[in-house]
Amino acid sequence: MDDGVYVGNAGKDATANRGWLLGHFMEQGDPRHSDAVEVKWGVHPRGEQRAQWVQGEVRTALLVLITGRFRMEFPGRSVLLERQGDYVVWGQGVDHSWFAEEDSVVMTLRWPSVPGYAVT
């Protein structure tokens, strides 16, 4: 990693930070440290759901379905992602939650990477 290049495996590396691969929470000097964006590799077994709704979100997010069937919940709206590559984008202030209808893998990008937020 001395050359500024990091090579890893999302499935293995994600376990170290509850799925997050890139963001402000990585050590300074690590190529995965970023104040601009956060990247998460989410592996969710069928039936798993977010314990609580996210409220007062201050970031914008993009979630892309890699495999499975995954439902995003927003106030007054439910979005089902069922084909590889299906995605949803939501902005600042949009409350949300999720539910894995089947074993699912999703990639989430959030920006900016905001210090003070827990790695969740």
From TrEMBL:
Superkingdom, taxonomy of origin: Bacteria
InterPro entries registered for this protein in UniProt: RmlC-like_jellyroll, RmlC_Cupin_sf
Protein name per the record: Signal peptidase I
**Species assigned in the record:** Streptomyces nodosus
